[in-house]
Amino acid sequence: MKSNFTGKTTVFRDERNGYTFYSTTLSSKQKDGTYHNLHVDLQCGKDVEFKNKEQIEVKESFLGFTNWKNGDKKGTNFKLVVMEFERLDEPSEPDPTDSFRAIDEDCPF
Question: For residue 60, what is the domain's CATH number?
């Protein structure tokens, strides 16, 4: 079975025991109008880092899973493996009219 998930999402960053983990959420609207949210692990390339609550647009991804064991407990977690994405809230170039800026000219007075 092949899957491809795309669209805008928020990335949540969590640091535990020297490791950085990323997740996102899926929401489902209930009959009573409330939402049920599910956190899903997010995996990207080895050198990719996100800020907490960073907005991205996923261009290409697929559903994967991770088996885990902690003592006597074992389980499986689904994860979204992101192959291609675009950052949506990158800092933009400052607007020169918003603040003072350097001028490469001699001072006129």
Answer: 2.40.50
Q: Which residues pair with 39 in a beta bridge?
A: 25
How would you write the pLDDT of the chain (109 residues) with one tens digit per residue?
788 999 999 999 999 999 999 999 888 899 999 999 889 999 998 899 999 999 999 999 999 999 999 999 999 999 999 999 999 975 445 445 444 444 444 544 4
Cβ count near 61 (within 10 Å): 22
Q: Are 57 and 88 in contact (CB under 8 A)?
A: yes
13: containing domain: 7-87
Q: Is 65 contained in some domain?
A: yes
Number of domains in the chain: 1
Residue 83 included in any domain: yes
What CA–CA distances, in Å, run from 86 to 7, 60, 64? 10, 10, 20
- In angstroms, rounded to a whole number, what is the distance separating the alpha carbons of residues 21 and 81? 13
Cα–Cα nearest to 80, from 16, 25, 20: 25
